[in-house]
Amino acid sequence: QVQLVESGGGLVQAGGSLRLSCAASGRTFSSNAMGWFRQAPGKEREFVAAISWSGGSTAYADSVKGRFTISRDNAKNTVYLQMNSLKSEDTAVYYCAARRFGLVVVEVYEYSYWGQGTQITVSS
């Protein structure tokens, strides 16, 4: 089992920045690929970014490419999402997720462990 706790959400003006953190506990964190997903009201949960177990491979949704950066610190069992140039359409609940395996994938169903989510609201 992996337990995930997100932090860093909040209200920010358009064009601003936020950094989300996801602290993991439980089984070995460093062997898991990690992902960030988001869900806006009335919409399905969608992929945002993912990082491999080593941090050597990353993937991003087209909508956030060039604005968001995913990273991880295996010594601290933490994954981060740096979000810059935020837009109103980035407003959503953001979820941290972990795979049982180490390679990057983008599908929601590939992730077995989920955090409780943190709200990001971008005001225009």
Commentary on this structure:
It contains no helices and eleven strands. Strands 2, 4, 5, 6, 9, 10 and 11 form a seven-stranded mixed sheet that branches. A four-stranded antiparallel sheet has the order 1-3-8-7, with no helix packed on it. With 124 residues, the chain is mainly beta. It is globular and about 40 Å long.
Brief sketch in words of this structure:
0% of the residues lie in helices and 49% in strands. It has strands at 2-7, 10-13, 18-26, 34-39, 46-51, 58-60, 68-73, 78-83, 92-98, 113-114, 118-123.
Blueprint (SSEs and pairs):
Blueprint: E1 2-7, E2 10-13, E3 18-26, E4 34-39, E5 46-51, E6 58-60, E7 68-73, E8 78-83, E9 92-98, E10 113-114, E11 118-123
Parallel strand pairs: 2-11
Antiparallel strand pairs: 1-3, 3-8, 4-5, 4-9, 5-6, 7-8, 9-10, 9-11
